[in-house]
From TrEMBL:
<dbReference type="Pfam" id="PF00128">
    <property type="entry name" value="Alpha-amylase"/>
</dbReference>
<protein>
    <submittedName>
        <fullName>Sugar hydrolase</fullName>
    </submittedName>
</protein>
<dbReference type="GO" id="GO:0009313">
    <property type="term" value="P:oligosaccharide catabolic process"/>
</dbReference>
<feature type="domain" description="Glycosyl hydrolase family 13 catalytic">
    <location>
        <begin position="27"/>
        <end position="435"/>
    </location>
</feature>
<dbReference type="InterPro" id="IPR017853">
    <property type="entry name" value="GH"/>
</dbReference>
<keyword id="KW-0378">Hydrolase</keyword>
<dbReference type="GO" id="GO:0004556">
    <property type="term" value="F:alpha-amylase activity"/>
</dbReference>
<dbReference type="InterPro" id="IPR006047">
    <property type="entry name" value="GH13_cat_dom"/>
</dbReference>
<keyword id="KW-0325">Glycoprotein</keyword>
<dbReference type="InterPro" id="IPR045857">
    <property type="entry name" value="O16G_dom_2"/>
</dbReference>
<comment type="similarity">
    <text>Belongs to the glycosyl hydrolase 13 family.</text>
</comment>
Length: 556
């Protein structure tokens, strides 16, 4: 792996060590954010040039999705070298300039860490293939002999998240584990060399001034590799459905109790810096298990995907919000909230799809079955955003949601890049629709994304969503976000809320201990507003009443 020294460690000691508890973090998918060199692929210099947009938006930090050397078999989550930058995206010097400029603008920098698997092009994996069965090099990964008379069958019935067997055979007859794409061989976290190398990686980026880490697939690192390996018995099950078949902490490769030893070890490293570096877990596990990753002696925070997965229903949202706040409080962490990211259908579209919609089938239809009303989707998305930003804890925004971008469901199949498309035999279209490059201007070959085209085609209606089209325009989604984040910074103090029960059906209302109130109308009719000064509304009031799919903030 590449190791380069950096001149000095930035002094962040004057910053609030608890900034992350109520922060707004903006996810940057570098390949789709801004292209500085005109090759159609976003890069680090493009991010640096657009940091003023994030500062003006009012976020506290940016989270960079992987920018490491990669074949892009999974959008950069197949990492060749954890301590370098993909040459197509820039250099380590470019990263240092990005971090310095972000800190100058008052923005923290969080980087993605992908510890479950490497790329098949990683130096370790190439060494493992050359070394052969039984070698120390292979022990860094999960290699096993196959079943059957000639080892021709996979070692277990484990399935890849992207479809098909989670095992790939190599020419000498052994099989290696890949919970994701075949180009992403899983590491063996029982191997001390693996653990030691990631300690080095953590220190490498902390020394370069990184303020925190987002840990990819945090729940899958440690596996039960005792022989014989266990079949699941129901290989069609995945994610939380698979977890439900096992006692908590005992699934063969998801959310095992042993994984927490890794994060307790990492926390010692993160706490050795001043101020301590932050971390957030991506752990697709039920709430009571998720909060274990967020304990103060582990990562400190964990993404709350239950909130993202909840439909546009007042009772369901209240239940999830209440439970999430209680879980976070029990762990000594703050809650996290997110509506969109690089893996899911954008919420300006998702929130108006019928609750029983099969999103894979909907994407295959090009977004036509059922058809989506973009105006209704945007109205609901704006209301959902103000609700989220009023909640105690940290909010994670995904690039382009401040523009109201919808899902690009109509991408032609010949341009798709997500490995899910091929891995599932063209059954699932994948996640490219939320990764289409951002529109910055109303004209140009890529609407200001870069001097050339874009690696995924942008639809013509992106011009209307461009930053240029919304900047300074009263009522635009961009200005709504800017105003909301400015107000939020002034209003947030405590980490609690009090629900109001005397509300019409389909309405959520809660008071914040810091002297303001949030009301969201998820019903189909306008409702009267309670007393208070209107601070911000996601849509114009209707004769002083709160219309459907609208959120308002009130000063008490």
């Amino acid at each position: 792996m590449t190791v380069r020294s950096t001149a000095s460690t930035p002094d962040l000691s004057s910053k609030d060590p608890n900034w992350w508890r109520q922060a707004v973090i903006y996810q940057v998918y570098p390949r789709s954010f801004a292209d500085a060199d005109g090759d159609g692929l976003g890069d680090l210099r493009g991010v640096t040039q657009r940091l003023t947009h994030l500062a003006a938006l009012g976020v506290d930090a940016l989270w960079l999705s992987p920018f490491y050397p990669s074949e892009l078999a999974d959008g950069g989550y197949d990492v060749d070298d954890y301590r370098d930058v993909d040459p197509r995206l820039g250099t380590l010097d470019d990263f240092d300039e990005l971090a310095a400029e972000a800190h100058r603008l008052g923005l923290k920098v969080i980087v993605d860490l992908v510890p479950n698997h490497t790329s098949h092009r990683h130096a370790w994996f190439r060494e493992a293939l050359a070394a052969g069965p039984g070698s120390a090099a292979r022990d860094r990964y999960v290699f096993r002999d196959g079943r059957g008379a000639h080892g021709e069958l996979p070692p277990t019935d484990w399935q890849s998240v992207f479809g098909g067997s989670a095992w790939q055979r190599v020419p000498d007859g052994q099989w290696y584990l890949h919970l994701f794409a075949p180009q992403q061989p899983d590491l063996n976290w029982e191997n001390e060399q693996v653990r030691a190398d990631f300690r080095t990686t953590l220190k490498f980026w902390c020394d370069r001034g990184v303020d925190g880490f987002r840990v990819d697939v945090a729940h899958a690192l440690v596996k039960d590799l005792t022989e014989p390996l266990r079949d699941l018995g129901a290989p069609e099950l995945s994610g939380e459905a698979a977890l439900a078949q096992f006692a908590p902490g005992t699934h063969p490769f998801y959310d095992r109790d042993d994984v927490h030893e890794v994060y307790r070890d990492w926390r010692k490293i993160l706490d050795a810096y001043t101020p301590p570096r932050t971390a957030v877990a991506e752990a697709w596990v039920p709430g009571p298990r998720r909060v274990l990753y967020a304990r103060p002696d582990e990562l400190g925070q964990a993404f709350n995907f239950e909130y993202l997965q909840t439909g546009w229903d007042a009772a369901e949202l209240r239940e999830v919000i209440t439970g999430s706040l209680a879980d976070a409080r029990a762990a000594g962490a703050s809650a996290t909230w997110v509506l969109s990211n690089h893996d899911v259908v954008r919420h300006a579209t998702r929130l108006v799809l019928p609750p029983d919609t099969d999103t894979d089938a909907w994407l295959l239809s090009g977004g036509r079955a059922p058809a989506v009303d973009p105006a209704a989707g945007l109205r609901r998305a704006r209301a959902a955003t103000l609700l989220m930003l009023a909640l105690p804890g940290s909010a994670y925004l995904y690039q382009g949601e401040e523009l109201g971008l919808p899902e690009v469901a109509g991408l032609p199949t010949e341009v798709l890049q997500d490995p899910i498309w091929e891995q599932t035999g063209h059954v699932r279209k994948g996640r490219d629709g939320c990764r289409v490059p951002l529109p910055w201007t109303t004209e140009g070959p890529s609407y200001g994304f870069g001097a050339g085209g874009a690696w995924l085609p942008q639809p013509p209606d992106f011009a209307a969503y461009a930053v240029q089209a919304q900047d300074g325009v009263a009522g635009s989604t961009l200005e709504l976000y800017r105003t909301a984040l400015r107000l939020r910074r002034k209003l947030l103090a405590g980490e609690s809320l009090t629900w109001s029960d005397d509300v019409p059906a389909g309405v959520l209302r809660f008071d914040r201990s810091d002297g303001w109130r949030c009301v969201t109308n998820l019903s189909g009719t306008a409702v009267d507003l309670p007393a208070g000064e209107v601070l911000l509304s996601s849509a114009p009031l209707e004769d002083g009443r709160l219309g459907p799919d609208t959120t308002v903030w009130l000063g008490l």
